[in-house]
Design goal:
Length: 127
């Protein structure tokens, strides 16, 4: 729990307040955080008041040995965000952090996301 608080140190960017999901993430993810896994978070925050990509930096720090997939339905948002994200980070970011787009309710989209993974499955999915 303490480590997730350290990773999520940035002040809440939303004037209406933020969630405390990171406490629950700590309970389940801290014991396995160093295991190599394929991780998917659905929702990049493209239409959220707190801003785009608010959690991707946390996942990058919290899961150092994982392939991280960030999904959103808004292709234009992802296309605008991803290049800047890669540019601002470590040079190996593009090897570990991936962006996928589409509607999670569409079976074809889900199959595309799964086929984009190195082993054809996600070990952890957060929506």
């Amino acid at each position: 729990l303490v480590e997730t608080d350290k990773v999520w140190q940035e002040p809440c960017p939303s004037p209406t307040g933020c969630h405390d999901y990171h406490h629950a993430y700590g309970v389940y993810l801290m014991p396995i955080r160093h295991h190599p896994m394929v991780f998917l978070e659905i929702g990049l925050g493209c239409n959220m008041k707190y801003g785009i990509g608010a959690s991707v930096n946390m996942w990058e720090a919290l899961l150092p040995n994982s392939q991280i997939y960030m999904a959103d339905y808004d292709q234009n948002c992802v296309d605008g965000y991803a290049p800047q994200f890669y540019k601002e980070g470590p040079s190996d970011r593009a090897d570990r952090i991936h962006f996928v787009t589409g509607d999670q309710a569409d079976p074809t989209t889900l199959r595309e996301w799964i086929s984009a993974t190195p082993n054809g499955q996600f070990d952890v999915i957060i929506d």
